[in-house]
Amino acid sequence: MSDDRTSRDAIEQAYPQSFKELCGYVDILASRGIEWGLLGPREGDRLWSRHIANSLALVDPIPLGVTVVDVGSGAGLPGLPLALARTDLGVTLVEPLLRRSNFLELAVDELGIGERVRVLRARAEETKERFDVVVCRAVAPLDKLLRWTTPLLEPGGQLIALKGESAEDEIRGASPLLKKLGLRAEVLELRAAQGVDGTRAIRVSR
Ligand SMILES: C[S@@+](CC[C@H](N)C(=O)[O-])C[C@H]1O[C@@H](n2cnc3c(N)ncnc32)[C@H](O)[C@@H]1O
């Protein structure tokens, strides 16, 4: 696994226009994020190599100028790094827990991105709005995600769920539901920048 310093340098090179804002968010995660218990204390040593690199892996597969919802955003992952790197996107962070949604409100305010990024305190399955792209990380297995998030998709929209090694198994497990909903799923191999660890995602579309 790449170390945090190497990943930070690689991300600085690949995203020079957003790097200052990404540093601001990493500072918030390293301080309030850990103090409020949204991230474990050991995560402080892998904020760039794991959390930011993972989130920025979604920069490439998302089309230009679309609306994105990050379901189960927690401390803002992957939605906040994505919003900082892709200023063309309108991003909604959906998170049901009060402490987490308060954290997100403060982070959005401090980063000065409130015009483009909104926090919605809700469960995915209660959300009534529609979006072009649903993203998520570490929220639920694919079959549950499909039940929660397909009603949130605009016609022609897509779900991109960050997943590790389990991606193929999850697609196999969800295949009856995928078939019933008329959806197809594929595994994407993604990397935020040269010099950071790659990750995988499941993309679901019609
Ligand atoms: C393991 S955390 C992952 C947080 C963040 N996505 C990350 O990768 O660090 C799962 C998050 O999903 C949220 N969650 C659980 N059930 C949910 C639901 N039905 N709708 C939306 N969010 C949900 C939890 O409150 C929690 O913040």
Automatic annotation (TrEMBL):
InterPro entries tied to this protein: rRNA_ssu_MeTfrase_G (IPR003682), SAM-dependent_MTases_sf (IPR029063)
Similarity annotation: Belongs to the methyltransferase superfamily. RNA methyltransferase RsmG family.
Protein name from the UniProt record: Ribosomal RNA small subunit methyltransferase G
Location(s), subcellular: Cytoplasm
Alphabetical keyword list: Cytoplasm, Methyltransferase, rRNA processing, S-adenosyl-L-methionine, Transferase
One Gene Ontology term, aspect cellular component: cytosol
Lineage: Bacteria, Bacillati, Actinomycetota, Actinomycetes, Propionibacteriales
NCBIfam families in the record: rsmG_gidB
Primary subcellular site in the record, as a coarse category: cytoplasm
Enzyme nomenclature, EC number: 2.1.1.-
Gene Ontology molecular function terms on file: rRNA (guanine-N7-)-methyltransferase activity
Keyword S-adenosyl-L-methionine recorded: yes
Transferase found in the keyword field: yes
Binding site for S-adenosyl-L-methionine: G72, L77, A124, E125, R137
Summary of the function given for this chain in its UniProt record: Specifically methylates the N7 position of a guanine in 16S rRNA.
CDD domains: AdoMet_MTases
